[in-house]
Amino acid sequence: MSAQRHRLADGGLIDRSRPYSFTFNSRALHGYAGDTLASALLANGVSVVGRSFKYHRRRGVFGAGSEEPNALVQLETGARTEPNMRATQVELYDRLTAASQNCWPSVEFDVNALTDVFSRFLPAGFYYKTFMWPRSWWMRYEQYIRDAGGMGISPRTPDPDHYAHRHAHCDVLVAGGGPAGLSAALAAARAGARVILATEDFAWGGSLLAERAAIDSRPALEWVRDTVAELAAHPDVTLLLRSSVFGYFDHNLIAIAQAVHPHSAHAPRQRLWKVRARQAVLATGAIERPLVFADNDLPGVMLASAARAYLNRYAVKPGERAAVFTNNDSAYATALDLHRAGVAVSAVMDPRAQVTGELPARARAAGIEVLAAHAVVRATGGRRVTGVQVAAMENGAIRGQPRELACDLLCVSGGWSPAVHLFSQSKGRLRYDERIAAFVPDVSVQAERSAGAARGSFALADCLAEGAQAGSAAAEAAGLRRAAVSVPGTTRISEAPLLPLWDIESGATRTAKRFVDLQNDVTARDIALAAREGYYSVEHLKRYTALGMGTDQGKTSNINGLAILAALIDAQIPEVGTTTFRPPYTPVTLGAIAGSEVGAHFDPVRETPMHEWHAQAGARFMNAGLWRRPMFYARPGESDLDATSREALAVRRGVGIVDVSTLGKIDVQGRDAALFLERVYVNRWRNLAMGKVRYGLMLREDGMIFDDGTTTRLGEQHFFMTTSTATAERAMSTLEYWLQVHWPELDVRLTSVTDQWAAVALAGPESRAVLSALTSADVSNAALPYMGYCEASVRGIPARIFRISFSGELAYEINVPADYGLALWDALLEAGRPCGITPYGTEAMTVLRIEKGHFTGMEMDGRTTPGDVGLGGLVAADKDCIGKRSLDRPALRAPVRRQLVGLVPNDRSTIIPRGAQLVTDPQRALPNPIIGHVTSTCHSPSLGHPIALALLERGRERYGETLFAMSPLTNSAVGVEATHHVFYDPKGERLRV
Amino acid sequence: MFAFDSFAGRHAGRGPAAPGVIVETRHAAAMCDLRGSPRNPDFLSAAAAAFGIALPVEPDTAAGTNDARVLWLGPDEWLIVSALPGKPLHSARITGGTLTDVGHGRAILRLSGPDARHALAKGCPLDLDPRRFAVDRCAQTAIARINVALDHVAPGVYDLYCPRSYAGSFWHWLTEAAAEYGCRAGRAA
Question: Domain limits of chain B?
Fold first, then answer.
């Protein structure tokens, strides 16, 4: 086992009895359960973890949690690879594999590091300014810039894992597993609330995991353990580790991305929780800010809190000789812990003139040198920091020559910014708090409250007290009893105020890189340049310089960046404001967002009762909305067109059956049913006799055709309506809307029975023979004439038989309760075998209806009136209906409206292109006036040549005219002749035999 | 005959001994959609007499037993379900009411087992906590983007009424959602 030479001999929250091996950049390394990838890398002495975004500078681990800007790695390889994973949050497991990003050929020798050498030519906005011309090269530039910059690599193969969504409801959701969050959850749980407590960490305790605090005179982690145990024992508490509360949406909808662990074969890899919380407690803690000085990005420069976490939680020495640079008291705890762990602390540089707090006093007492009124102006070193240049400060400015101090670890702290991201996403308003030089929650908009460090109360005692109060108040606001709040005891450490310090610039470091945003390589000079060029708004600054973009969204850089901008434009920080906080708090993998709605579950599928038969018969299916419908049943060796033509001809010459179960079906009952139909259809209904079917046309309020179909009178007050497949749900809801909102006085009840009935159209000259063989009912023309209806037993199945036809042939539509659909289908096939009965699909159905000039959704495109399709006469003059008044609008009566016509190609052989535009002269210079368009097109096997339907200006006056169907898609112009739209059996004689 | 039945079998997980979720297909002998005004006492009493169950008038509640169940679907709409054969429900005459046979239009799945609620929560946005969605509560909701009626028939036992044409999709979704808890699927005895 390779030595973990930076690992402490004992202590920490790692499990030394569970060693793991892992590889990083192909090097075999070792760590322990309880490590993160970052802590294991540090334990192994790996200081360079990746290369930076733009300049390809070496970068090491900077933080210890979700704020990490530098240590982004490509985790695993192949289909399970994940880019941009924060090594500080990747929980180590055995045989983990990770690699550095954004470097080639290796992290140690990266060709693109040349960009750093030429960086003075690459200021902010460089790309916008340089790659503007020639315009035609934009995409080419893009390709190279993408390769040179950027992050990790997305997986290129389908994800082998699955993801799940989970809806949840609770009284109190607590975001954050630190002292405030645990206190809040405990108080809420004791009040009887349903609680969800989530932390992005894989252990409970938050900041306590990294500290050496005491609660109730015991180690704080014992309090954590007991609290979690009590919470876990509550049946109404859900504890979510490894769960990032990443989004706060309207109505307290809160989203959590949970990494499921341990991963098992049937468990999802991640679970996306959508929580409706009555109340939320945001105990999201605070993020330590870096300090901005020259070369502050060298590996070995680290947030003071992170160094402390590596020491105390992971038992890793992040360096052998440390320097600390801080403008506040908190980093002194790090200095003390380093000292205690045997790390030499060169000095603590503190810009404050007087350093008076309790922690600095302890540091001095421990023999640590404290340099008041001093700052680090530069970090020095190559592969990692080897020293710092320290200079004295006077009135906030660097004075005098810097001197060199040796160190291999520089811990920085520029103060703490409350993690107000979720609060801000909830639309709460922030306030700038001078005391901590950061934004804190001010006015809530949704049902939430912040507690502890998330609202700027950094002391442990305050976190515990505010958490307990917030939990209790949230439970009460959620309607539960008020419970007594007990707050465990802690020792309060007095702290002196911080000294805001945003950009440490000495004469010598004026042109050096003082990084503000480590992830996006944005320096203080870039911000100055942007301000000079007029980008005063923080939102513009962000987009121009990339400050605060990327996977960390500026968690460590935002406040520094806008404070530097404020100083440059002579404004106050609150005036400058923050950029908008948007979800997600940390990146969420797309798999989790998609959940199970992938592949076959992308959309639900609707199948008819005869679906299995169609599938076994080799049907090719099409999507009709959510329905799967057979297009045709091609025989071996048969082309699509041949199959379609064969099926269509079989209907014209013999008999065919088609599954029409997908048609919308609505049962209409009530005293006013006939009156209702008169109001929704353009034509007359009161006079429809019992047992008769009638074609009906519905309009929208604007007079355009909404839908058509047949409706049958089953009884005095009972009708059966059908709608188009595509319109079924819209028709039902529209009709319900009219009934419920506009005509509540009508006694009419609608019930959707689409799924109740299987429907088969039996069509063709032989159809009567087939049906007669299956029923004793008289289905002769005399007993059951065209548009007649009867109920009969068909091979013992109770059936509704409608003498209607879409094909234009003698036909029956037979409806049976859905369970019997397949039996009916089989019976018809069997009875029709002597006549060569042919099942046909939607393609043949389309051919048959185009031959008959029947219009469908292609023609009813929301722009056609009854008059346009030749049904103006159907609109009853002596009654009103929805949309009728609109038909009188001048534009709807204009003679130039496009009217339904037929088209036949002049050469009788060229298929008329679908969607083609109709013009009179194909050679005419553009813009060539378009006078119509092709709506439906096919080859007609009955006529032996192609035909089409079209909507054509003054179409009915143009029969016999030659036009051209131009298709920019096929780059063709087909000469066509306009005709009447009914090509086949125009008198309808074949229907009525 | 329901599309469900062809998928019956064991679907992974904890093993047949202790499945977290049990999915069973149920076959109602009859199912009817009943419409009528709850303000019409003649209608209410006629319906109660015909089905032997007083119509629940509180929104999203159900009444009755395993053999005969009434679900509130709307202010003037109920779903009548009978598990007992022989009674053609839709031919009943109910003063002031109308009946429509929907017995073939919906497939019924019965969900039980200790994790039934958790599996449902993967697609159902409702609060299924038994204190909020108690026994005899029902709801119409979208699960996996499919409209279903959900009926809490007995503690931890849910009947799901799914439009027949969506049944295959819904079955696949449900058994997949339940797989992580261990799922046994089959036909109700």
Answer: 5-27+105-187, 30-103
